[in-house]
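Private note to self, pasted from the team thread so I don't lose it. Backbone tokens:
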């Protein structure tokens, strides 16, 4: 009955591609292509934020954390909420002072054109590397099902997602995200009950085995200043403090998520989307951790080794154990998570390339270029980044655990990015030269931390942010910069 599963997956892939491509007719300007014309309701933007924030890394990586450990990953959720408060108070009012297309226009207003290009370039590097890991994560699912191999799988998912993103822009991204989020959450709920049904003794047995193995442990309040403490990825303090800095950077400074906030009709709707997305994120993480727990119980009961690589744990079980048709539906749901995130990344990378690099340069040479010219360049940039992400996805096959690899890559670059944004928002004295020196110093420090220490990635953004911010303040004093040198945003 595998043909029924394959048919379900094929129908989904074709249907979502067709659905996204239908939005081409509404794309008449850069505002339409990159901000959806400010027409999307807050709840759709909230679900789109969730889709971008989770991705296939969450779907296939989070169950592994509970399978091999416990529920301590949920401590990060506390930091996610704290970060949303910071963004709501500090960032959103600045982003809605006039119309912005990218987060890095805020840096141009505060510091100047050079820091805009530096922060935008950092985002392009960050997103290309991190998204390459996510593309590879999707290929694990496809190759597990079809046995096509990782290269063919990566190529297929990139091409399909590129098509509707190229055609429909941000409007297609948001509304396909809504459809795909409902699909992969429904798929996870379905698989939860199917797995539970296949465990003799039901939930009582799951709870018994989970308690014996300490799987339900969520909080770890131990704190010390020893190196061992800072080498633990998941503790209450790492989750609250580290998670707050990580999410403030990702949702407040990275175009992938800032673009969604900017697409809202106004600041109030943007704030509503931001906070409501947290509720869904909490539910999702908990759901996938429970799935990982039940898979642990299942493999313990049957005395079988879990499939390799570890990220194949969930999709492999679904494909081999769920009834025909349902397996295809759940696998399609996992693919939905990957495609929604990839489409968002392509649009965000294209918007930054065009708005922060190409358009300022082209407008200086010919200020009379029509909007149609930049819209065409936006689509070309989307294709270019699809090719780049395909190549990075091939390399990412050798980077280890996909969930933590993606978070680690992001965390290395987030610190300097958030640090320079905070310099712009919280200081008046610091000017462009100091901000550039600080950002470079923060990035070099984090590369050294990754290379020569055992500090957990959950602390990376805090360390990088603090180093960048303090360096900027000190260098500004040394250079004798004045708050009158440039008007703040």
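Design output:
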């Amino acid at each position: 009955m595998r043909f029924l599963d394959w048919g379900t997956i094929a129908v989904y892939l074709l249907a979502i591609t067709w659905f996204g491509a239908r939005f081409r007719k509404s794309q008449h300007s850069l505002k339409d292509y990159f901000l959806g014309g400010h027409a999307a309701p807050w709840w759709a933007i909230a679900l789109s934020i969730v889709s971008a924030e989770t991705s296939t890394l969450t779907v296939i990586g989070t169950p592994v954390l509970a399978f091999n450990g416990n529920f301590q990953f949920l401590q990060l959720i506390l930091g996610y909420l704290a970060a949303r408060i910071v963004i709501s108070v500090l960032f959103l009012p600045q982003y809605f002072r006039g119309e912005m297309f990218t987060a890095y226009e805020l840096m141009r207003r505060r510091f100047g054109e050079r820091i805009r290009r530096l922060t935008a370039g950092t985002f392009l590097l960050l997103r290309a590397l991190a998204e390459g890991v996510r593309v590879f994560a999707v290929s694990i699912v496809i190759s597990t099902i079809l046995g096509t191999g990782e290269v063919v799988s990566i190529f297929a998912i990139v091409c399909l997602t590129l098509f509707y993103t190229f055609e429909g822009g941000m409007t297609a991204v948001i509304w396909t995200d809504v459809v795909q989020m409902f699909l992969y959450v429904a798929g996870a709920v379905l698989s939860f009950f199917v797995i539970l049904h296949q465990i003799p003794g039901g939930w009582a047995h799951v709870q018994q085995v989970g308690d014996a193995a300490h799987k339900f442990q969520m909080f770890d309040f131990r704190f010390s200043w020893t190196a061992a403490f800072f080498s633990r990825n998941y503790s209450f303090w790492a989750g609250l403090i580290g998670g707050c800095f990580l999410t403030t950077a990702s949702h407040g400074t990275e175009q992938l998520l800032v673009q969604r906030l900017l697409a809202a009709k106004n600041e109030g709707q943007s704030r509503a989307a931001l906070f409501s997305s947290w509720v869904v994120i909490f539910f999702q993480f908990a759901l996938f951790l429970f799935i990982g727990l039940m898979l642990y119980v299942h493999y313990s009961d049957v005395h079988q080794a879990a499939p390799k690589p570890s990220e194949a744990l969930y999709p492999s079980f679904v494909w081999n154990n769920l009834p025909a048709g349902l397996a295809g539906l759940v696998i399609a749901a996992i693919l939905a998570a990957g495609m929604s995130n990839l489409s968002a990344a392509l649009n965000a990378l294209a918007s930054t390339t065009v708005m922060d690099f190409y358009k300022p340069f082209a407008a200086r040479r010919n200020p009379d270029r029509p909007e149609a010219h930049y819209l065409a360049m936006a689509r070309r940039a989307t294709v270019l980044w699809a090719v780049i992400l395909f190549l990075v996805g091939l390399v990412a096959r050798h980077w280890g655990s996909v969930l933590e690899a993606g978070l680690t890559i992001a965390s290395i670059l987030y610190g300097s990015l958030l640090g320079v944004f905070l310099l712009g928002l919280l200081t008046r004295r610091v000017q462009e030269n100091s901000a550039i020196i600080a950002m470079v110093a923060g990035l070099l420090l984090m590369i050294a931390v990754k290379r020569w220490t055992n500090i957990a990635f959950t602390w990376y953004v805090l360390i990088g942010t603090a180093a960048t911010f303090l360096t900027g303040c000190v260098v500004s004093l040394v250079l004798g910069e004045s708050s009158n040198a440039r008007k703040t945003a």
